[in-house]
Amino acid sequence: MLLSRTHSLLARRIVLILGASAALAGAAFAAGPAFATNEYFECGSCGKVNGAENWIRNAQGINHSGTGACVTMWWHMPGGGYQNEGSACAGGGATATVCNAPTYPEFWGHGEVQSYGEKAAYIRGRQDNYAWCG
Amino acid sequence: MIGDNEMKPRFLRSLLPVAVLACVAAAATVGTEALATPHDSHHPTKTLTVFTHASRTARARLAAVAPPPGAVLATVVGDTEVFADQNENGEDCVIYLRPSEGGGSACDAAAHVEQYGEVLIRTGKITVTGAMPKVTVAALVPNGVTSLTFTDRSGKSYTVAVKNNAAEREDNQVASVAYTAPNGSTQTTNVAALVNQIRQQTGPNG
């Protein structure tokens, strides 16, 4: 009796753990990497705004003030300093996205959005490490 | 010996990790919020011919970056693929992908793109501030636009043909790109000014 109930409890727990693992794996598959980077940043009146340091693959930006925006991915180099890994620009009201090279799928750094020249623009940005571009 | 009354609390306790994992999974599946404010694109049309004429079965050849599901391959220039897509925010997007570089996209309200088009400027890696990066221009233009005029920094001009509403050209020396919209207006993008701005960036605090 003791043995069968203990086994029954163990079996239930194994089933639950397997089920939970499958659910988590499914969610990770649907959303990209598990615990994926997906961070927004914005500034109500500035020329540029930066995201937080994280693992990134894409950066996105828009200038709601009208003149357009350029979005840049900055790689935080191991020795210090930053390197521009790529930029993309689009006109006013349009969203620009820049995606990293396949050889370096994601890297430690952050996204930056800069207006076309305005010093007091409403600009928004987002950075992620998702596998698709656009 | 474990009694039935003791099993129920234990069984419930065993569900706790499942509940926590479910919450984590739910958080991980939250979609991305659009950066753009929904404007006149709540009921977008797909009048650009690329959405009906181009191949929907084409797939990106890149392994690490891919266009969004449903994107249409508009044209291939060398090792570069240019896609058109209408995203969930009702915007028309031009997306370009290149194995050696990655890619980029520009998305704007469908109604705006159908009338005026949109231009994406993508620059490559810059290892030294001030250096000239690789510059690529990709455009999604209205029906009827057959070519784009590229003008170099030297003042020399040439045309790039449009295929399936899209055009793409890599030219580090391009100064501007222009085309005539269906309403007769000339749409000009000052590429050199944007590239110069990017070249002079010195990093996050610069």
Structure description:
The complex is a heterodimer of chains A (134) and B (206). Chain A is built from one helix and nine strands, in the order H-E-E-E-E-E-E-E-E-E. Chain A has 134 residues and is of the alpha+beta class. In chain A, the strands form two sheets. In chain A, strands 2, 3, 5, 6 and 8 form a five-stranded antiparallel β-sheet that branches. In chain A, strand 5 (69-76) and strand 6 form a beta hairpin. In chain B, 22% of the residues lie in helices and 33% in strands. Chain B has helices at residues 4-28, 50-53, 110-116, 191-199; strands at residues 72-77, 80-86, 91-98, 102-109, 118-123, 135-140, 147-152, 157-161, 166-170, 174-180, 186-190. In chain B, the strands form three sheets. A four-stranded antiparallel β-sheet of chain B has the order 1-2-3-4. In chain B, strands 8-7-10-11 form a four-stranded antiparallel β-sheet. In chain B, strands 5-6-9 form a three-stranded antiparallel β-sheet. The model of chain B is unreliable at 26-30 (pLDDT under 50).
Give short descriptive properties of this protein:
heterodimer; A: 134 residues; alpha+beta; 4-stranded antiparallel sheet; 1 helix; elongated; B: 206 residues; 22% helix; 33% strand
Shape descriptor of chain A reads elongated
Pair with the biggest interface = A-B, 69 and 71 residues
Poorly predicted runs of chain B = 26-30
Shape of chain B: globular
* Strand line-up across the major sheet of chain B: 1-2-3-4
**Element order, helices and strands of chain B?**
HHEEEEHEEEEEEEH
Write down how many β-strands of chain B occur, each being a DSSP E stretch of 2 or more residues: 11
Secondary-structure-based class of chain A equals alpha+beta
